[in-house]
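Cast an eye over this sequence plus tokens and walk me through the fold:

***
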Amino acid sequence: MERDSWNEPYRFSNDMTCNDILYSRTDRPFGLSWEEWTIRWWKWVLSIPKEKNPGFDSTGERSYFPQQFQDDNVIFLVGTFGGTVERTYTIPKGKPVLLPIINYTFCSKDEASVLTDEDLQIRAQSDINDIVEKQALIDGKSILEIEKYRVKTKAFDIVYPENNVFGLSKGPTRAVSDGYWIFLKPMQVGSHNIYVAGSCSSGKTKLDVTLHLSVS
């Protein structure tokens, strides 16, 4: 396996795994850590009202909803806020892709008793520790050792719009994210399929997502 640069598109060969086309957890694409990129992802997705939010999209038509937090260097894709969905996207070549396998964010608006940054981190960590199923496949190949791709952020500021995805009051708040992520290096031009699934021990949180990507 050879490449001319860290940002060169990869091609699957028989001896490769999905992990070969993911950034490592120590990589800093475009100078930012995975933690910093996932914070940007959350600020983007949570700034979009529910009626336009890509997390409630059944086809893929909302993939490029213009928002100030979406970075030109990286394509942000989403799973769901629960449930099963199958979407189709067309994305430009030469762009990395960031999307969650399963993740949580917990903010100080969720419960009045959760006030400090440490409280937020404990609650988000507890939610992710309760995940009993997590699976991700790229073009039919499984991501190995998914635990390596768990990303815990520090607390960050967000601003909820009217009619936000969680039904909370609009305005600023503090939040923490914890969860499992896919951070793909630029993919070969053509068709690709990504499948992610996850659930908690009670089954209350459960998702099953299939994404069909056309890289052109």
Residues 1-10 have pLDDT under 50 and may be disordered. Helices lie at 34-46, 117-129. Strands lie at 75-76, 83-91, 97-107, 131-138, 141-142, 150-152, 156-160, 171-184, 190-200, 206-215. The longest strand covers residues 171-184.
